[in-house]
Automatic annotation (TrEMBL):
This is Laccase. It comes from Solanum bulbocastanum. Belongs to the multicopper oxidase family. Keywords: Apoplast, Copper, Glycoprotein, Lignin degradation, Metal-binding, Oxidoreductase, Repeat, Secreted. It catalyses: 4 hydroquinone + O2 = 4 benzosemiquinone + 2 H2O. Its cofactor is Cu cation.
Length: 574
């Protein structure tokens, strides 16, 4: 009898092992073409020298820019962020859908409390149906001035690009550099109520380029062979500035934006707003030599001050014998206020049609004004904005206030009262001539932490309307957790009767960040298929600090695949 019981136990164990093997084989089959990536980001101070000055900046792994992460569509990432800096920090994975994993999205006090000095947090997320170029950056204070890096998403194993495979592949990260400590710049602007100091330089991969003093030695060089095709992954990581980008004597074929493919077209210049990415293919078909790639501001604020310098890197053909040390050719970049060129570029963008079709029936028809404002205050050191005021910014006249006791997502998930309200207005509280002469009585917004709730699966349309309060301006508006179709853009006030008739519902560009035209409007559509709390804001950091943002709550749907995951055990607490 004893041996029979042993045999029965062994049979049960064999059955369990067989079941386990089946499960493991099933999982292996599921992830056969996917990989798991484990990274550690050490956030810390690092000494760097730029523009003849040495100072400490906040970096990841002592790199500026930070490390490039290269993954494939379908891969899963585990990134442990260890904070050894003086400041609170979070990391945002800009453009990643974060399907059911809003806890990994990263904006401070929206989806998480910050990682405090000495703390750590592991971001866990899977790339789902995304390919192309995205990026990651700090989403706490203005630390993203130096805490950022590229996120390259290759096609799945066995899949190809929808264009010929380029021979070389380079990230081109455009940034801004301040000689002063960036947190000091932020604090001064917040104290005075005035606009922040302009940057002292723009950068390509962290280097200003040799048009700036003390910068020749560090100028970035890209080496190419004659005849090669080169994929440039252009990322605008600048804190506060849209940028034109061009390469001398070379045409650029635009093949992707914001990790989506588009119908290819050729241009000699692109405009990239803060937060946006653009993939271009360059063919090294010119006389062997050295050619500048360059970027400088596209600035639209009336009488506004901006950094009017030019950053450069060098495209260098190999085996250049004569004139190897000669000055490279410089591209002719558009004027800083050349809205016609920026518009012509945007109008050429067309997506490659896919199974995800633009929704025709709209469940939520929203209209958001976006723009600056001014707050009246007693003249003094804290009122150094125009005419003794303080700058503010708003959507639908609500200047967004971030919570401090806990994050919006934790408050929503745990039903914590008193953190936010659900009364964000779906349309402007007052209708007016948005891009005309605006009454001074409309210049001062109201302040609040107001959210808007969406049902899972609802089809959403948002009209984004620029305003002339203080000044019209091109605003790069970013939606976390989603990408969207840009079905229309134009100038002046949006007219639903005439402008809707011209919407592109066949092949509109797909983005996660849309530049609302200066003195104009843009219309986006998306399906609310990702539950969580998602920030919607201007990606000019000074504007976000002034309140140009809001957040959506997207409710759970039915079943596991339509329900947000529970918070991870190491989620930072406030």
């Amino acid at each position: 009898m004893h041996w029979l019981k042993q045999m029965q136990k062994r049979s049960e164990m064999d059955t369990c092992i067989s079941c386990l093997i089946v499960v493991i084989l099933s999982l292996l089959s599921t992830f056969a073409n996917a990989e798991f990536h484990y990274h550690e980001f050490i956030v810390q101070e690092t000494s760097v020298t730029r523009l003849c000055r040495t100072k400490n900046i906040i970096t990841v792994n002592r790199q500026f820019p930070g490390p490039t992460l290269t993954v494939r569509n379908g891969d899963t990432l585990f990134v442990t962020v260890v904070n050894r800096a003086r400041y609170n920090v979070t990391i945002h994975w800009h453009g990643i859908r974060q399907m059911r994993t809003p806890w990994a999205d990263g904006p401070e006090y929206v989806t998480q409390c910050p990682i405090r000095p000495g703390g750590f947090y592991t971001y866990r997320f899977t790339i789902e149906n995304q390919e192309g170029t995205l990026w990651w950056h700090a989403h706490s204070k203005w630390l993203r001035a130096t805490v950022y890096g590229a996120l390259v998403i290759l096609p799945k194993q066995g899949s190809n690009f929808p264009f010929a495979l380029p021979q070389k592949d380079f990230p081109v990260l455009l940034g801004e550099w301040w000689n002063r400590d960036i947190i000091a710049v932020q604090r001064r602007a917040q104290f005075t109520g005035a606009a922040p100091n302009n940057s002292d330089a723009y950068t390509i991969n962290g280097q200003p380029g040799d048009l700036y003093r003390c910068s020749t030695q560090g100028t970035v060089k890209y080496s190419v062979n004659p005849g090669e095709s080169v994929l440039l992954r252009v990322i605008n990581a600048a804190l506060n500035q849209q940028l034109f980008f061009s390469v001398a004597n070379h045409m650029l074929t635009v093949v992707g934006i914001d990790a989506t493919y588009n119908k290819p077209f050729t241009t000699n210049v692109i405009m990239v707003g803060p937060g946006q990415t653009t993939n271009v293919i360059l063919t090294a078909n010119q006389s062997p030599g050295r050619y500048y790639m360059a970027a400088r501001a596209y600035a639209t604020v009336r009488n506004g001050q901006f950094d009017n310098t030019t950053t450069t890197a060098i495209l260098e053909y190999t085996n250049v014998n004569s004139g190897a040390n000669s000055r490279p050719l410089l591209p002719q970049l558009p004027a800083f206020n050349d809205t016609a060129t920026a518009t012509a570029f945007a109008n050429q963008l067309r997506s490659i049609p896919s199974n995800n079709r633009v929704p025709n029936q709209i469940d939520e028809n929203l209209f958001f004004t976006v723009g600056l404002g001014l707050v009246n205050c007693t003249p003094g050191p804290r009122c150094q904005g125009p005419n003794n005021t303080r700058f503010a910014a708003s959507m639908n006249n609500i200047s967004f206030v971030f919570p401090r006791r806990t994050s919006l997502l934790q408050a929503y998930y745990q039903n914590i009262p008193g953190i936010y309200t659900l009364d964000f207005p779906p349309v402007p509280p007052v209708q007016f001539d948005y891009t005309g002469n605006v009454s001074r009585g409309l210049w001062q917004p109201r302040f609040g932490t107001k959210l808007y709730k969406l049902k899972f699966g609802s089809n959403v349309q948002i009209v984004l309307q620029d305003t002339a309060i203080f000044s019209t301006e091109d605003h790069p508006i970013h939606l976390h957790g989603y990408h969207f179709w840009v079905v229309g853009q134009g100038f002046g006030n949006f007219n639903p009767q005439t402008d809707s008739a011209n919407f592109n519902l066949i092949d509109p560009p797909v983005r996660n960040t849309i530049d609302v035209p200066v003195g104009g409007w843009a219309v986006i559509r998306f399906v609310a298929d990702n539950p969580g709390v998602w920030l919607f804001h201007c990606h000019i950091d000074s504007h976000l600090a002034w309140g140009l943002g809001m957040a959506f709550i997207v409710e759970n749907g039915i079943g596991e695949k339509q329900t947000m995951e529970p918070p991870p055990p190491d989620l930072p607490q406030c």
